[in-house]
Amino acid sequence: MASVPIRHAVCSRCSISIAVASSSRIAAISRPSRVTKRYNSTSHGSLPRFQPRLDGLEPHHGPRAKPSHHVGSLSRSQAGKTVILGGWLFAARRASANLHFFTLRDSSGTVQLISRDPVISERLMKFPLESVIQVEGEVLERKEKAKVEDSQLKPADQVEIQLSNVLLLNAAEANLPFYPNRPELANEDLRAQYRYLDLRRTELSDNLKIRSKVMHITRCHLHDKGFTEVETPILLNSSPEGAREFLVPTRVSTSSTSSSPPSPAFYALQQSPQQPKQLLIASGAIPRYYQIARCFRDEDGRKDRQPEFTQIDLEMAFVSGTAPVVDERAAQQSTWNIGGSEVRDVVEGLVKDIWKEIKGIELKTPFNVMPYEVAMDVYGSDKPDTRFEMYTLPIGYFPTLTEDTLDRILLDERLYTVEWMVTPAHLAKHIDPRQLLANNHFVHCIPITESNMMTWPAESPFTNNLELEIDPELINHARGGVQPGDLLWLAQRKKIPEGGWTNLGRFRVELAEYLVGAGHLVLPPEPRFLWITGFPLFTRADEDKAFLSKGRWASTHHPFTAPVYEDLEQLKKGQVEGVRGQHYDLVLNGQEIGGGSVRIHDADLQEHIMKEILQLDEKEVSRFAHLIQALKFGAPPHGGLAIGLDRLVSILCDSKSIRQVIAFPKTAGGSDPVFKSPSSATVDVLKGYGLRPLTEDSEVEKKD
Amino acid sequence: MASVPIRHAVCSRCSISIAVASSSRIAAISRPSRVTKRYNSTSHGSLPRFQPRLDGLEPHHGPRAKPSHHVGSLSRSQAGKTVILGGWLFAARRASANLHFFTLRDSSGTVQLISRDPVISERLMKFPLESVIQVEGEVLERKEKAKVEDSQLKPADQVEIQLSNVLLLNAAEANLPFYPNRPELANEDLRAQYRYLDLRRTELSDNLKIRSKVMHITRCHLHDKGFTEVETPILLNSSPEGAREFLVPTRVSTSSTSSSPPSPAFYALQQSPQQPKQLLIASGAIPRYYQIARCFRDEDGRKDRQPEFTQIDLEMAFVSGTAPVVDERAAQQSTWNIGGSEVRDVVEGLVKDIWKEIKGIELKTPFNVMPYEVAMDVYGSDKPDTRFEMYTLPIGYFPTLTEDTLDRILLDERLYTVEWMVTPAHLAKHIDPRQLLANNHFVHCIPITESNMMTWPAESPFTNNLELEIDPELINHARGGVQPGDLLWLAQRKKIPEGGWTNLGRFRVELAEYLVGAGHLVLPPEPRFLWITGFPLFTRADEDKAFLSKGRWASTHHPFTAPVYEDLEQLKKGQVEGVRGQHYDLVLNGQEIGGGSVRIHDADLQEHIMKEILQLDEKEVSRFAHLIQALKFGAPPHGGLAIGLDRLVSILCDSKSIRQVIAFPKTAGGSDPVFKSPSSATVDVLKGYGLRPLTEDSEVEKKD
Description:
With 704 residues, chain A is an alpha+beta fold. Chain A is built from 24 helices and 23 strands. Chain A starts with 8 loop residues before the first helix and ends in an 11-residue tail after the last strand.
């Protein structure tokens, strides 16, 4: 390296060799004296003085010792030692003139402080609760069991601290809007407004810690499995699916002439990294991608949804496109009769890790697999809650009705059938059907008695005008359909299952919620994981997509999902109804926590589906141009999945709402009670984006 | 658990007990036969048929074996074994009628394939290069050293694969816009447009893998140190600092009457998690927070900046607010004379980990510390590049001028002084000052000769009208200021350093870049880390903030930075000039890679600074209401730091631009060549947000 010979005095004070060798020498020449001289030589007018508070509760700013322990790390073993703790003054009480008890809380727990020093006691008694203090004292082993001030907290009650010193680091206000760690909770709005106080509540802070753990377990697991974490753009372009996307105006102008007022230009916030991650895998840059990605959807206040949410998102190259030729686990896996088993294996391993480390539960893998059609037939739902029985079955299965009569009782021979469900007597006796069905015009209930055991169809609005062929066989043995005291529920449903629910499927869940709430039904504690596969690839039933499909076929999930190999020829013939997709949903306790699919890697097939089946116009197709192009550059077969982290964690935390596992959630209405968003913008600001309010008179905040 | 007695035939086919025990039984009742029947019973018209391609290059959809190895995992040890590989056809050549050589590439490397089977050879020769194939063959140990087709690639050249089978998984187009892994690079625009092809280039994919590693090392390190990862809102409210923030209009209406057209409401994308993370720490929920956070700034095309970028963001509770009383490392640490040493320790440990695992370099910690004022005096920069010498010094230090004469040569006794820098003869001989200063009117150059060694000040525009008091002492010994052949550079600078550069400091870097580029100066390979502390807490010099401060004082960094303890009294007196902040920047090789500070935890002081010193009006202060409120609820002292991940990784990857370490970067102009953002929106869409284009005639795209 070229070097400058050090020749003059000054450089001996700041030469780099010295600067590197001992920065203290460098420090020497900062000379506060000279600084002061410099500043005094200038003559800016000085500003108002600071008004100190007079209540003797100024926060400590000066030097102080560093805390030696967390409360959680205290135990008998330190008895006799002197420790320094920082935390919140949680409770204070006077036992006698010269004996006071206090409770110190930090995020790891609480510990009792005792003071026999009247000066320290007096000071501490003056501090408002929830003030931040630093205390020094001797660790004493605790004789008597501690009285726990707060049922929510588990104090390190083996020891107490005999105070020798206390510092007020920061006083709390004398009267807080509420006190977070007391049993009685303040009302929700107040807690939402002061979230940064509510977060002090142990239950919430524990949720955040569990969430952090889950993310770390996930990342370690996926790194071990050879995944690469890649950040994809959050600022994307708007897409045809973008019904609920957020637009982001930018000052960057699309008009070439920047002299004229710019025509507004927008990014869109990603709703999921679907396209970027497929491009990434198609590029061949990395064989296995993952990301814990923030996604955005302008849900406009759907129940328990957030405008921003988090996905564990992954994608793998070279996944199998159909059931593998060599299948080591044929026995168990026989129902995973689609491709992407590599994704299944990774996800099951990940979920296993999470449940083991967070819950201490060893999950049995592989998880069960159920075809969509079966789920709809047996549970009337594409996310069956298998923790309780009672099945919703097409009437054709009803043993007292022979196959022949089935067609005759269909309301519409082409489209409709009847589904039925039995609630057995021991549960039925707790149920008042009239009450439960008060607002439900789809489900019909027939209480079963000795007299109508075999004739009930005559009471069914769906089946009453039939003379039934009773099969004596079935009546005579105990396996007959229903028994006195049962409740028989009937509803109409589409013959070919469609969408996520049947009428009875929805009611089945409401009924279970009622029975659980009333304590008549107890759900098993262990989680019930289930894969649902074989969804129809196309649908006409999804309202969310109606605006797009305009009565045409829409993709049940997204247009990149590959068809089931066995249905490929049928699809190519143009008979799309009944074509199943290589899509898989991961269901836990009746909630969908993840979903994914094997993707189409064949550019011609992808274009065929977009143009001929979805009948997207040129402009709509052009939004996918980069993806189709990427497939033409030599893209490997690939597939992936995304798990909803908020939902997953809220289940792990037994939280009712995902808001309890998010640090600063927004309300159902999408507003932020802490940061007060969204808010208005000035006309001037909007002008910068080439925008103006629709109505000039709309209350647009004027800045001074 | 309540259970339903199984009574009828059908349930033996789908009872949950069975469903759970063996899902294969459940699968049985999906009955493809019945499905077909169902669909046949419906009569939707069928759609156009798929037109198969006729060139015999259809992608394989059917069953196939799973790949057994990655190319990177091949070695002599597998010789004789049969392996299955998936990857890209990278090269093909005919050696003789019955001997062909091919190269297979996957993201882990390349391997040679040989075919002696004319059928396989013919097929492979037909496949376009970059097609995705799956091959099966025997591993042969390689006799002769392989000719490496591409200097960029290191093939697993111990072995080659003798082909027994080949599958075309996906054909590439016959002519790609460019071929990523060839030495000659296509032009940048083309590569940007087809980023998903360019990413196939090993150099880029390696960058992504290094980035992923750095993130994982970071997370593991911080988790080990007891940090909790917390996701803070990306959709925040706009803030006074928000000159460059992105607004996000939302359909959520702020007007109570939703009948009238909604008045526009906006979120703002976070520029950094500064406020959320301070609220989090203030809440006491967690003692140590971190997040690898996506941040957003509407930079409007600044060089090598991205509208979205990533920060390693952390914050710690109970950090010391001034040099700790007990300092185990007093010797080295003596110049860290502010608080927050806990943050310093964590960050240095983290950086040490990263350099060790990525570069195999053991960094010496603690890093050096240099006060801002010294950096500005000695290097003319607040991010000194200490890899080369040459110092920019206030003329006062010039030994041939005594302190007394110093004041007389100041251009403006109050504000200005002169800085000077010497380039020694052995470097000077490579420099043409006229050329280097062609567009630089701030720096003046005096070539030193025997004759003007002591009289040069007479040639300086800044000092020429002075009779100088030459100190014979200094002249006579070798430590005199300059020597013949040196180049002496002079420039004017503020007496009290301000902002990030002096004129000479900026020139110093340009000069070094020129010398390095021309090969006359060689920079040392090992990284030079440096902490800069003691920045002025307030400034009038920051243009970025001028719009806010309107000539008033502005915070040099942000209004939450705590003053240096020793300067607190001065600040309270209202003499803010010269008050230093407890801010620290981490500098690497002349680039700022991170910065942070100890925060103000005293609500009164925070309010005093905002109202009395920054003179924010009520409305501006109200934007910080939640933060001030949080401090009043009992907030612990806290401090933190943020590291720019993109910059850090690009330095680790020796990349010129951060775009080379981002999967899908945007152009300098902020547009996305792949996803074609930003783009226009229809009037109807804008209406949904209560917005319309400023100029009706601005080309707003009309949807059909």
